[in-house]
Specification:
The protein has helices at 4-16, 57-62, 113-151, and strands at residues 24-31, 36-39, 45-48, 51-55, 69-72, 75-78, 84-87, 90-93, 99-105, 158-163, 166-171. By secondary structure, the protein is α+β, with helices and mostly antiparallel strands. The chain has a 4-stranded antiparallel β-sheet with strand order 3-2-6-7, with no helix packed on it. Strands 4-1-9 form a 3-stranded mixed β-sheet. Strands 5-8 form a two-stranded antiparallel sheet.
Length: 172
């Protein structure tokens, strides 16, 4: 006889340890948070930091340096004050399916640092509010699910009556 629990454990383990990573990712942060990120060579916008950029391993391999690192287009960070920081190109050393992270730091000598810091605080406040709203939404959904699933349970009432040498059972 097959042990179903053992099969389930083996399937889950094989999924978890099968090396699910099929692409490389680069997390781009800014200091202070909230700079608008664009790719230097193409001008492609990625939005407000922190952002994630995903690379196809085959594409990365086309840009592999002699030292074994991958050379990718750099990024520009532009803060609300107008301060700009550019990092180009970017060298990613490791596997073509790794996770990488960079931080673009604002030059503190550029005017308007107080604007950028205030904007970063507003972003953090907004993120906290969004997380709180999501937690409330999740809680409401869980309560709704619980109430709905409880109402869907069929309560079966059975009555058993002896009749001669037999027993009659009626359920509703």
């Amino acid at each position: 006889m097959i042990d179903h629990a053992r099969i389930i454990v083996i399937l889950i383990a094989s999924i978890l340890f099968s090396g699910c990573a099929t692409q490389a990712s680069l997390s781009i942060n800014s200091q202070p948070e909230g700079a608008y990120i664009t790719e230097v060579e193409t001008g492609k916008p990625f939005g407000m930091a922190p952002v994630a950029v995903v690379y196809d391993p085959a594409t990365l391999n086309l840009h592999k340096s002699t030292e074994g690192c991958f050379m990718v287009n750099g990024f520009e960070a532009r803060w609300v004050s107008g301060a700009v920081t550019t990092l180009n190109p970017i060298k990613l050393c490791g596997s073509n399916v790794d996770s990488y992270s960079i931080s673009l730091n604002r030059d503190s000598s550029h005017p308007g640092l107080d604007k950028d810091l205030q904007f970063a605080i507003q972003l953090q406040t907004l993120r906290a509010q969004q997380q709180q709203a999501q937690a409330s939404k999740d809680s409401a959904a869980a309560a709704l699910w619980s109430a709905w699933s409880a109402s869907q349970q069929n309560n079966i009432n059975c009555t058993t009556t002896p009749i001669g040498n037999s027993v009659n059972t009626n359920c509703r």
